[in-house]
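User: two proteins, same treatment. go.

Assistant:
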Amino acid sequence: MDTSDASGTAAASTALLTDQYELTMLAAALTDGSADRRCSFEVFARRLPNGRRYGVVAGTGRLLDALADFRFGEAELAVVARFLDDRTLEWLRGYRFGGDIDGYREGDLYFPGSPILSVRGSFAECVVLETLILSILNHDSAIASAAARMVSAAGDRDMIEMGSRRTHELAAPASSRAAYLAGFDATSNLEAVRRFGVPGAGTSAHAFTLLHSGPDGADEAAAFRTQIEALGLGTTLLVDTYDIAKGVATAIEVAGPGLGGVRIDSGDLGVLARQVRDQLDALGATGTRIVVSGDLDEYAIASLRAEPVDVYGVGTSLVTGSGAPTAGMVYKLVEVDGTPVAKRSSHKESRGGAKSAVRLARPTGTIVEEIVYPMAGPAPEPDGFEARDLSVPLVRGGRVLDDRPTLRESRDLVARGLVSLPWEGLKLSAGEPAIPTTFLQ
């Protein structure tokens, strides 16, 4: 299996992207002989973030890549040797996941209790994957779920992800990928462009306009003229460094009516967008697009839907999940040697047994219910509805299957899923999940 990244260099091990207790539990299981018991673990979210009506599964592709690199070399063993015995170290030295994984397609919707991922194998080989699985799925699904709400609020207008400077540098490309999967059109993050093939986009900086200042004051026209000379008429000029009306007038004076776009990054964006549109049209720049940014979230985007905005640039709210920075997914043991097991702790209950799920829809395509049932049992009857199996094979015998979807295909799945929701499922106001989930024993 190729473990090099897009640059052609050897990929780093993902084995230490984990919590210490997983390896101490492995050591204990090796001690009493329970490490080889056949187990099923399940990833699910007990509930959606407050007020949310659906979630979007994201990160599956990144997870499968990370699984291939979950190897304990000498550098990794040197770290865990501080607290593990020799037998456990030798077991880790030869670790290769050899089990099976099924899961929801990346880009599919999920609801409370959906069996998003099923991991089956020995206790030992499955337990050490908990943190890796949850850290990727919780992060990416949180970003994609927030992004999908923003895309719905924006309608058919373009969306640019601009959140790199508001999150961890290593999380930024993953955030860009999740946003693109959910329907954003481009990202400003170049590592996401390189690594995942997300389309890149950029506008301009206040610093460049301010740079063109001297003893005689600011020279906004010189900044605009240089930018156009370097980047062409299709570029976007930032017009709110000083006075927006003067900035727009200067932009068209320098560029002419063929200017690609102007960007507004501050102020009352709705009022300003109307004023700028009127001004641009009066100057003959009817094709010049208006890009707005500045602390946008799905609610702000929805409030601007009636305004003449062409492109939204979203940063902080997107990469922080717009108030829900984690999807709240958990990884629980649900079956041991064919016997269902369940956690009964108050408010943290789990349902025993390995599970599959189907989603029922009307002939129009509108989904009405999700049914979760025992994996070993027959699928439920659709009772006149159209049924779609939700879990698909991802890994067999430790080998990642070759027919996983591309990022573009997963993006299309998100778009189809949003269209399939009942109309109330797209509301931004707080409410119950868009469809009910029924659990069969």
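Protein 2:
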Amino acid sequence: MEKLEILEGRKKQVFEKNKETETFDIKCETTSLSGSVSQRACVFCGSRVVLYPVADALHVVHGPIGCAAYTWDIRGAVSSGPELHRLSFSTDLKEMDVIYGGEKKLYKSLLELIDQYEPKAAFIYSTCIIGLIGDDIDAVCKKVSEEKGIPVLPVHSEGFKGTKKDGYKAACDALMKIVGTGSTEGIGKYSINILGEFNLAGEAWIIKDYYEQMGIEVVSTMTGDGRVDDIRRSHGASLNIVQCSGSMVRLAKTMEEKYGIPYLRVSYFGIEDMSKALYDVASHFSDNPEILQAAKKVVSREVGELYPQLLEFRKALDGKKAAIYVGGAFKAFSLIKALDSLGMDVVLAGSQTGNKDDYEGLKGMCDEGTIIVDDSNPVELSKFILEKEVDLLIGGVKERPIAYKLGVSFCDHNHERKIPLAGFIGMYNFAKEVYESVMSPVWQFAPRKGGLS
């Protein structure tokens, strides 16, 4: 096998769990090492991941046209109504705009777009070039908002300022400018907001249905199938439920400080975590025992239908090895539990944006010999896949070619997917996809490669 090495500057971001290792001090939450070809995305990417599913808002990229290619039109967030979020608008800055400034172009673009599409709000995304030339987008947004009577919100997402996590912060700050600006009339006591759920392949609809069967009112979803008016009145909810903790804990904490709304961190992936997400909400509203009884009824029905099907998949998958490399570490927790229910062993677990607490949690969940890695790159992932004789890699669009080139099965768990993986039905879809990929006869024609050459 061709020898693949870890860069010297990356060695503190890789940890192998074993009995001899007493201390766990993985390096994380740092900028990517130059030359490592990290899979991590930029600030601009993070902000649009969070905000773009707001379906009745205008999304305008202030910068060169190339940045506007990153759009939710090629991703899996769907809407039950407006489709404005699927259109990608850009001020298309040219050389002369960079020299003389792009504020006038942004102003004229916003007037034209707002008149034509009549959005409920507009999000304006700063790109790297805006950070360099110093356009005052706050002033432009304020002027247009006063003239058109809708929120026009600057998103300070200059890509070079940090990582994808900094983009999450910029998005949360933009959302907070409209949270609390709407009427809370009619919102009941047993009400929640769902944060960090982006309605990939309709997953938000599945989750909302579970809660509504329990007698829980969902005031807003931030931001999957989101609506500006719902976000404006979201401060009237009694509880915030945070699904993607990396992207939305900041918003939940800010709403708790400003409006006194508590929050719970949950996951909607896998039998165990999906059930817990329903029970945790029921426990919060403990003064109404009917909610807990309804939750038990939902879980009993869904698990009763799902479990026998999972046992069939487990017969074939028992003992197979899996590697996980995802954006947020909290997602990896649920994946480990889900794979365990299928009898599979996780030998590699990593993320792009995990913190020390996340990795400490992963260490506690993983077996001896498991590799835990932060902000990995294709060479490292290839090295561990080959060394650990992995049967399945779970990741996103950037990891797919790595798996296929090495002759390893792959499961897409990123925003590009078109099949729901959340909820109880999502667990069935996941198990089916894992089974069909791992057990496919195609792998006999794609023997394991010894490297990336």
